[in-house]
Amino acid sequence: MINVAFLLLVFFMMVAVIAPPDPIAVEQPVSSFDDLDHPTEVLVIGANGGLMRGSLEGDAVFDNLSRHAVTIRADARLDASVLAQVVSRLADARVTTISLATLPRPAINERTE
After folding, report:
1. Terminus-to-terminus CA distance in the chain, angstroms?
2. Is residue 78 part of a domain?
3. Which of 47, 55, 40 has its CA nearest to residue 90?
4. How far apart are CA 101 and CA 110, in angstroms?
5. Domain for residue 81, yes or no?
6. Which residues are within 8 A (CB) of 77 and not within 5 positions of it... i.e. 6 or more apart?
7. Tally of domains in the chain
């Protein structure tokens, strides 16, 4: 029985997708929508407007977007005008699909206020 448990553990470790941590600490907004089912480039925007995509920083994040879908992980405290400017720059870079990553909204009985 223990062999089966170890085999399952090894299996899940091998097939799991391990994502690197965000280069900028962000506090994501919440929503009630489900996760995306297609791969995207991830663009991280900090509360101060700092941009990162992988190891790229600043305006370099808009260079060589290999996919036509981008997911923005923006801090919930980010000014909406900064987010609008980033979306405009992505549109100028011919990005066809732009998604905003959010955290799931907690159920009514789970909310702590």
Report:
1. 45
2. yes
3. 40
4. 21
5. yes
6. 27, 47
7. 1
22 band by pLDDT with thresholds 50, 70 and 90:
low
Angle at 74 between CA 56 and CA 60, to 5 degrees: 20
- DSSP for 13-76 reads HHH---PPPPSS-----EESPPPP-S--EEEEE-TT--EEETTEEGGGGGTT--SSEEEEEE-T
What digits encode the pLDDT tens for the residues 43-96?
Answer: 899 988 999 888 888 888 888 776 678 888 888 889 889 999 999 988 888 888
CB-based burial label for 80 (10 Å; 0-12, 13-18, 19+)? exposed
Q: Does 110 reside within a domain? A: no
Q: Which domain holds residue 99?
A: 33-105
Task: State pTM to two decimals.
Answer: 0.60
Q: How far is it, in rounded angstroms, from Cα 74 to Cα 100?
A: 7
- For residues 45 and 78, the answer to whether their CB atoms sit within 8 Å is yes
